[in-house]
Amino acid sequence: IEIEAGIVSMIRTKLTIEDKSRYAIVTFSNRQNIEIDFDEFTPEAFEEALYGIELSPSNVANINVGLNAAFECLVKNMQKLAEGKQFRIIIISSGDFEGKGKKWEELVAISSKVGINIDAVQISQAFGHESEILQAIAKKTMGFYYICKSNADIESILTELAPGREVAGEDSFQTQEDRDMKGLLEVIAADLNTLDEGIKTIEDLKRIVNQDDDKFKCGICHSPDCMFCKGPAFSCGAFCPACGRFFHQHCCAGWAESQKDTPKNVFKCPVCFHLLKVPGAVHRISVLKENLIERQRHPDKIEVKKFNINEIGQAGAFKFCAWCRNVFNPQEEIFNCPNCGSFYHQDCMDKMTDKTMNRCRVCGAPFSIRGTAGGIQRIV
Ligand SMILES: [Zn+2]
Ligand SMILES: [Zn+2]
Ligand SMILES: [Zn+2]
Ligand SMILES: [Zn+2]
Ligand SMILES: [Zn+2]
């Protein structure tokens, strides 16, 4: 009860300093459990979850399991991060735990690199090696380490922990730590959902092809056609995995490049602020623009290669021909514009090139074609 009261006092104090703070509770013994996650946080829900925890003294706790769970929980939340937020883990340990396997050392190394402070509060003086581990964790991550000598200590020590360390200011923006942080953002950013993951029904298929549905207007350029590759919604569309908002992948790439606080291929969803990654296959917009200029200078240069739709697996079932707007047959040999990613039937490509309209119908990139006419190379 002293521990719970101490934690409640700490949270209340923290909220008077910084009312946007969010907390999660992770308990661990031989397995871990997230009692309340950041999303569910309100002071009331937190207290209810806290007083509902039943710790079983018969289970041996493992610090590796516990720290790993807390770390995962925090990293998930960091995808929705706001600038200047301080990330902390507070370990409150009241008994023996195992620290074999040294996984905690790995987590501590990452934490110190990306600026997660880990505070350790030891509630008992009875343990030796465990104290050393807790001290090492706090020291390496610039956290605080305390031993509570009596029950009366618990509340005052935990309350003292509330303010935490000073958050680094604007002037540290270009430090090594900042660059390391950007490296981590790349690791923790979530992948966009592809069209086949986001379009589940025939109704949705019709809506995206019809081009006049608000659901398939991009959350960045507010249009069904991509502002960069000029393709329709289904040529480079994708979805935010957190809020489901539709975007063009090229608009995401352009948005990511314009953001100063994230790596060049990482951006925050403009709708829900979830941290997202531009797919590796999408050209950086600056490169796309350079390519377009280069192609205007040398219009014969862009090569469109034939490949089997089977090569892109399940996703193939959701691709359309940009010329006739029909789907493809399984195993069909098709063409793919290397500039905007649009797909074409072989027949449609032949019709286009016969009529000397040898440009991508979607993005206007001029084509020369390889691998047609029974494997004999033909350059149009
Ligand atoms: Zn767009
Ligand atoms: Zn596009
Ligand atoms: Zn979103
Ligand atoms: Zn076609
Ligand atoms: Zn194209």
Structural overview:
The chain is an alpha/beta fold and 380 residues long. The chain folds into three domains: 2-172, Rossmann fold (3-Layer(aba) Sandwich), CATH 3.40.50; 189-277, Herpes Virus-1; 298-370, Zinc/RING finger domain, C3HC4 (zinc finger) (Herpes Virus-1). Helix content is 36%, strand content 16%. It is built from 13 helices and 16 strands. The chain has helices at residues 2-17, 43-51, 63-78, 103-114, 129-140, 151-161, 176-188, 195-198, 202-210, 233-236, 249-258, 285-297, 346-354, and strands at 25-28, 32-36, 61-62, 87-93, 97-98, 116-122, 145-147, 190-191, 237-239, 246-248, 266-268, 275-277, 303-308, 333-336, 343-345, 368-370. The strands form six sheets. A four-stranded mixed β-sheet has the order 15-14-13-16. It has a three-stranded parallel β-sheet with strand order 4-6-7, sandwiched between helices. Strands 8-12-11 form a three-stranded mixed β-sheet, with helices on both faces. α1 (2-17) packs parallel to α6 and α3 (63-78) runs parallel beside α4 (103-114). The radius of gyration is 27 Å and the shape is elongated. The model is unreliable at 167-174 and 372-380 (pLDDT under 50). Bound molecules: zinc ion (5 copies).
